[in-house]
UniProtKB/TrEMBL annotation:
Residue ranges occupied by any Cupin type-2 domain in the UniProt entry: 77-144
Listed transmembrane segments: none
Annotated region (Disordered), positions in chain: 152-175
PANTHER family, alphabetized: CUPIN TYPE-2 DOMAIN-CONTAINING PROTEIN, OXALATE-BINDING PROTEIN
Protein name: Cupin domain-containing protein
UniProt biased composition (Low complexity): 153-163
Pfam family for this entry, one: Cupin_2
Organism this protein belongs to: Streptomyces caledonius
Species lineage: Bacteria, Bacillati, Actinomycetota, Actinomycetes, Kitasatosporales
UniProt xrefs under InterPro entries: Cupin_2, GPI/OXD, RmlC-like_jellyroll, RmlC_Cupin_sf
Keywords assigned by UniProt, alphabetized: Metal-binding
Key word Metal-binding present: yes
Length: 175
């Protein structure tokens, strides 16, 4: 089989015939699926997330090559009452946390903030963040992680030069 297109050109000029018999261009890459369907059944049970001792249920709903543009991952997570997703920092991604169920506290750079169902929190690049379930039901949240165009060294420098803020100890619980 030939890789030449064979088309009859009604006007028969040499230019049209040459164009019609030219090698075909390489096939374009196939587009990614425009719809990804995932659910939260069958999550992994992980102990000690980000340096804590408790249990976290976690599932990646979409990640890596499933996603286009600057998306890193879409994940679902859940901790039982008293559970913790420990404090940590991302130097190349931002995360959006959307609380689906339950209530708790999110710590952003040492300051505690109450969160509950329907709340959204952005953890910017370089922000130290962690989440604790302070309620009496599971705390479930969706994480949307997005790569930042800011180089990691600038994020680290920003975090290192940010003014120190004392934590709000009136609302913070010891973890």
């Amino acid at each position: 089989m030939s890789d030449l297109a064979t088309t009859t050109v009604p006007w028969g000029t040499a230019m049209a015939t040459a164009a019609a018999t030219a090698p075909l261009p390489p096939a374009a890459p196939q587009p990614r699926a425009s719809v990804i369907v995932a659910d939260t059944t069958g999550p992994a049970d992980i102990y000690g997330v980000h340096g804590t001792a408790g249990l976290t249920h976690w599932k990646a709903l979409a990640s890596g090559l499933d996603l286009a543009a600057g998306w890193e991952a879409v994940e679902w997570a859940s901790v039982p009452p008293g559970g913790v997703s420990g404090e940590h920092r991302h130097t190349r991604t931002e995360e959006i946390y959307f609380v689906l169920r339950g209530s708790g506290e999110i710590v952003l750079d040492g300051v505690s903030h109450p969160v509950s169902e329907g709340w959204m929190v952005l953890t910017g690049v370089g922000t130290v963040h962690g989440l604790r379930n302070t309620g009496d039901t599971d705390l479930d949240w969706l994480v949307i992680e997005i790569r930042s165009p800011t180089p990691p060294e600038r994020c680290t420098a920003r975090a290192a030069t940010a003014p120190a803020r004392p934590p709000d100890t009136s609302r913070r619980k010891p973890w």
